[in-house]
Known about the structure:
Oligomer: single chain
Organism: Caproicibacter fermentans
Helix content: 10-25%
Protein name: Cysteine-rich CPCC domain-containing protein
Largest sheet: none
Shape: globular
Amino acid sequence: MKNICPVCKYDGLLNPPYDNRGVGSDEVCPCCGFQFGCDDFLNKDESIAIWRKHWISLGCKWFSGKTLPSIDWNAEEQMKR
C-alpha cells in the first residue's frame, strides 16, 4: 500500500501521514512541503485544504531539493489521483 499525501496526492511518502489515532507522522512531503503533525496542529482538514490552495497558487512547485520528482512528474496528473 502506498503512503499518499492528502494535500498534493504524492504517493511516495515513507510513512502513512497519520496513524490509526490520527496522529501525524512528522514526515515532510517532498512534493508540497506539508509536515504531518505540525502544519495541521489546530485543524487537520482545514489545514490540508488551506495548504493545498496555497501550494496550487504558487504553481505546484516541487518542495524538496533532496528528493527530486521523476522526470515525467506532472502536478496536475498527480492531483487527479
